[in-house]
TrEMBL record:
Taxonomic path: Bacteria, Pseudomonadati, Bacteroidota, Flavobacteriia, Flavobacteriales
Any Pfam family matching the protein: DHH
Domain DDH, first and last residues per copy: 18-169
Database matches in InterPro entries: DDH_dom, DHH_sf, DHHA1_dom, Oligoribo/pAp-PDE_c-di-AMP_PDE
Protein name: Phosphoesterase RecJ domain-containing protein
GO terms, molecular function: nucleic acid binding
Stored SUPFAM superfamilies: DHH phosphoesterases
Superkingdom per UniProt: Bacteria
């Protein structure tokens, strides 16, 4: 962050304020970690922060400190709109375009108070008075750590804030494996462990709490997987019928897309998940190395994200979506 931007933030935070903190729709570990980490930091600095999530967060994040205070726009539009309208300041974390909050965008668009963005995705929109945006970072949580340090408040980072930051760094780095994991990332993690952050318990809470149904759903997805070996690509599908059969709940399909990359030689993978209610196929893409799934998702599937992790959607049937995908892959030189 530039000195000028740091001063602007310090000025904004110099008196107690009502502050709305917003993650993207369907928040993941990094979105929840960064918003709750900021929540605890602002609370400690005598502000009145509220995290307003566009929709419900997954169960596997419900243990996070402060998650019980999170307001869910989709469940309580009236009160959430009031909270947003009364805010003196709005932070948006882990996304950079207001359409990522779904219907809540209409409320945000009408607000006249300053917005601050902290985010690590490509091509930020221009809605914030301070935009701390940098694709070099593997997580918004690592940026939040830096943000607090820029404000000269490193000593405010305690076990609670550290737990939130740790969760986002862990989940967005694929447990410290993805290429943007640096020595600095590990040094931050080391500091957090020294503060008492439970570095063995957190992964257990996040990853070892599957239901039997979820594991069976994973089995189904693995069974459905197709490999296009000539193009180093693997993909899988889950239909609404399959999701229903295994009593799927929100979050159950999280992470399944990554399994394609665990096949030797595969560098591009996708999962197509039917959503009968919204009449769309939701798609996640992952890659290893140079193949840019952000561009691929933007160009062909109405989405975007990062170079190695992106999402998209299709309004075609599952069959037509998969055919379109295969046709595209057959033209790729991976
Ligand atoms: Mn993130």
């Amino acid at each position: 962050m530039k000195e000028q931007e740091i001063q602007a933030i310090q000025q904004l935070l110099s008196t107690p304020k009502k502050i709305a903190i917003i993650p993207h729709r369907s928040p993941d570990g990094d979105a929840m970690g960064s918003t709750l980490g900021l929540y605890h930091f602002l609370l400690k600095n005598n502000h009145q922060p509220v995290v307003v999530s566009p929709n419900e967060f997954p169960d596997f994040l419900a243990w996070m400190p402060g998650s019980e205070t999170v307001k869910i726009f989709e469940k309580d539009k009236k009160n959430c709109t009031k909270v947003l309208e009364e805010a003196d300041l709005v932070f948006t974390l882990d996304f950079n375009a207001l359409h990522r909050v779904g219907e809540m965008e209409n409320v945000l668009n009408k607000l006249t108070v300053p917005f601050v963005m902290i985010d690590h995705h490509q091509s930020p929109d221009d809605y914030a008075v301070v935009t701390y945006s940098d694709t070099a970072f593997g997580s918004t949580c690592e940026m939040l750590h830096n943000f607090i340090c820029f404000l000269g408040k490193k000593s405010d980072i305690d076990k609670t804030i550290g737990t939130c930051i740790y969760t986002g760094i862990l989940t967005d780095s694929g447990s410290f494996r993805f290429p943007k994991t640096t020595g600095t990332t590990h040094r931050i993690i080391a500091d957090l462990i020294d503060l008492g952050v439970e570095n063995t318990e957190i992964p257990t809470l996040l990853y070892d709490n599957s239901s039997y149904g979820r594991l069976q759903l994973l089995g189904k997805a693995l069974q459905n997987m197709q490999v296009l070996a000539n193009h180093k690509t693997a993909y899988t599908t889950l239909t609404q019928e399959e999701l229903d059969f295994f009593n799927h709940v929100k979050g159950d399909t999280e992470g399944i897309v990554n399994y394609g990359l665990s096949i030797k030689g595969i560098v591009f993978t996708a999962i197509f998940i039917e959503n009968a209610e919204e009449k769309i196929i939701k798609i996640s893409f992952r890659s290893q190395g140079d193949f840019d799934v952000n561009l691929f998702a933007r160009e062909h599937f109405n989405g975007g994200g990062h170079r190695n992790a992106a999402g998209g959607k299709s309004e075609l049937s599952m069959e037509d979506t998969v055919n379109k995908f295969e046709d595209l892959v057959n033209k790729l030189k991976i």
